[in-house]
Each structure stands twice: as structure tokens, then as C-alpha cells.
Design brief:
CATH architecture: Orthogonal Bundle
Low-confidence stretches: 1-21, 261-269
Distance between the termini: 17 Å
Structural class: alpha/beta
Oligomer: single chain
Largest sheet: 4 strands, mixed
Order of helices and strands: EEHHHHHEHEHHHEEHHEHEH
CATH superfamily: Aromatic amino acid hydroxylase
CATH topology: Phenylalanine Hydroxylase
Number of strands: 8
Mean pLDDT: 88
Number of domains: 1
Strand content: 5-15%
Helix content: 40-55%
Length: 328
């Protein structure tokens, strides 16, 4: 699915529909592909809303770069049940974040003040974020190729889904949804150094040509920028939005694996291994997105995390990169 971009400009290239690769278009109609085991697979109304929300992303991606800068993102049609899902998640998420989230996240989460009783629209959240770091969020239909995602980052655009998980299982999602995007990513993108790291990953990807190298870079991003943890004094804190948007996995990650995903901490022996940063190891380490992670890379501090990632990704694919050929 990789394709070269003639003009990366801002956001997603106008010459590709990869940003909408999770949807199918037939006769002008938009259909979201859901696996048969997806909680919403048999819910006709939910699927119709998903199709409508995906159409917003498709039509947005068809606009010129200038139009995207001047127009507002259309509002997603959420149901009352979906707003209730958001409310239930926020009620559980906030206490866990106060306990386990890094201080940088907490500072900007308070400034952003996401509503607790309804799903905020992407436009209103993006406007707040852009005022802080210049990053903005734009709609995307679903999972995208890493090249598409990282190219947008280089231009201070974070591609975000707008749909929310199914109400039958509010504390589980098989795919990144609006909770992951807004609760997990937005506050961290308001942190200046974190926003800078995202841009650096985007620029590194623009120096990357082979599918294998793109995959390696994406894997490093996953272990650091999605599931990163750091020390604050003697405590382990969640930094990555993949943790910050899941109260269960956040507790699991910050207690050494003592939390197994049940309603309360279990008495199992810790089953999580913290490792020191080793980017060469990270590049090829497999991971399973459907399970709590058995290995996480722990930085000595947020500052050290920023410095190590920045140094690594800045030289990726450049003449200073000792593994330049591998990374291109």
C-alpha cells in the first residue's frame, strides 16, 4: 500500500486515498469493513453511523490543502448511547490517569478540559490543540499506512478517527477510536517536546523508502510514542497514548504487570518486563495489539526519553546514521 507522494504539502497527500484505506466505496456509497467478531458487526444503526463518519473523512481528504485550512470538520453523528459510552469511560479513566499518567500529560489534559458527559467533536478539540503547539487533528476513516500517518505528522497534522467503540462493550475496542485519539493523543500533542518528536518521526519517514524500513520506524514509534513509560522519582508513569487511553493497560504498565485487566488488581506475580532503551532491538521486536504488553521500554525520565528518541530519529536515514542503508 506504500506509494510515493509528489507533493506532501500539509496533511494527507491529495494524490492518495490511503487515509481512507479502512473503508470500501461502491457506487458512491461508503461502507466500513468490520470483522465478524467486532462488537458492532450485527448492529445496523451503528454500522450506518460508522459509514457516515467514514464518509466525512473521505470527503475531507478530497479537499485541497487550502480548503482544509479554512473549513471546519463536519460533526460526527453520535447517538445518545455513544455519548453514554464516552461518559462511562471518562469516569473510569480520570482516576487512573491521576494516579499513573506522567505530569506532562496531566498538565495539558487539565488545560484542554475535554467534556466528561459527551463526545467532543474533532473540530473543537483540534482548535484548542492548534492554539497550543500548532498541531491540528484531521479526520481519517480508519487505520492508515505508516507512510501516510507519518507524512501528516511532519506537517503538524495528526490523523484521527471519529467513530467510537460499540456500546455493548464500552471498555474494549479492537481498533483505535475517538477515545484513543482525544483522550490519549491530544493532551500529549499539546506538550511541546512531544509534538516535536512526532514531527521528527514524520520527517524521518520522509527519508525512508523501503517497506521494511517504514515498518521498522513504525515499530519504534509504537514502543516509544504509543506505549512509552518513564520514571518519575520511584514511580513508573504512562507517557504513550496507547496506555493513557486504556485504564486497564495503564495500570498494568505502571504496576509492573500486577494488574491483569480484571476489575481490581489481581494477586498474580508481575508478568511485565521493563527494558532499557535499545532502538536496534525495538525495530524488529514483535508486538500483539490485542493483549497487554509483556515488554515495555522504560526511560529514566521524560526528559531522558525526549533526548534519546530525538537523537535517534533525527539521524535516521541521514549520512550520520551508522545503519543508513538499513533505514532507507
Amino acid at each position: 500500500m506504500h506509494e510515493e507522494f509528489a507533493d506532501v504539502g500539509e496533511g494527507v497527500s491529495e494524490d492518495t486515498n490511503e487515509a481512507n484505506s479502512a473503508v470500501r466505496i461502491e457506487g458512491g456509497n461508503v461502507f466500513v469493513e468490520l470483522d465478524p467478531d467486532h462488537p458492532g458487526f450485527k448492529d445496523k444503526e451503528y454500522r450506518e453511523r460508522r459509514n457516515e463518519i467514514a464518509k466525512i473523512a473521505i470527503e475531507w481528504n478530497e479537499m485541497s490543502m487550502q480548503e482544509r485550512r479554512t473549513k471546519k470538520i463536519p460533526e460526527a453523528p453520535y447517538s445518545d448511547a455513544e455519548h453514554d459510552v464516552w461518559k462511562a469511560i471518562m469516569e473510569r479513566m480520570e482516576p487512573a490517569q491521576e494516579k499513573y499518567a506522567c505530569k506532562e500529560y496531566l498538565e495539558y489534559a487539565r488545560k484542554l478540559k475535554l467534556p466528561k458527559d459527551r463526545i467532543p467533536q474533532l473540530q473543537e478539540v483540534s482548535e484548542k490543540l492548534e492554539d497550543i503547539t500548532g498541531f491540528r487533528q484531521e479526520p481519517v476513516g480508519g487505520l492508515v499506512h505508516p507512510k501516510t500517518f507519518h507524512t501528516a505528522l511532519a506537517n503538524k497534522v495528526f490523523l484521527s478517527t471519529q467513530y467510537i467503540r460499540h456500546s455493548s462493550n464500552p471498555f474494549y475496542t479492537p481498533e483505535p477510536d475517538v477515545v484513543h485519539e482525544l483522550v490519549g493523543h491530544t493532551a500529549m500533542l499539546a506538550v511541546e517536546k512531544w509534538a516535536e518528536l512526532n514531527m521528527l518521526f514524520g520527517e524521518a519517514d520522509m527519508r525512508t523508502e523501503s517497506e521494511e524500513a517504514i515498518k521498522r520506524l513504525g515499530t519504534v514509534y509504537w514502543f516509544t510514542m504509543e506505549f512509552g513509560v518513564c520514571k518519575e522519582g520511584n514511580d513508573v508513569k504512562a507517557v504513550g497514548p496507547g496506555l493513557l487511553s486504556s485504564y486497564g493497560e495503564m495500570e498494568h504498565a505502571c504496576t509492573g504487570g500486577a494488574f491483569c485487566g480484571k476489575e481490581s488488581a489481581c494477586v498474580c506475580e508481575p508478568n511485565l518486563e521493563y527494558r532499557k532503551y535499545n532502538f536496534e532491538e525495538m525495530e524488529t521486536r514483535p508486538y500483539d495489539v490485542t493483549k497487554y504488553q509483556p515488554v515495555l521500554y522504560l526511560a529514566d525520565s521524560f526528559e531522558r526519553m525526549y533526548e534519546d528518541i530525538s537523537e535517534f530519529v533525527t539521524i535516521w536515514g541521514t549520512d550520520e546514521d551508522p545503519r543508513k542503508e538499513l533505514h532507507q
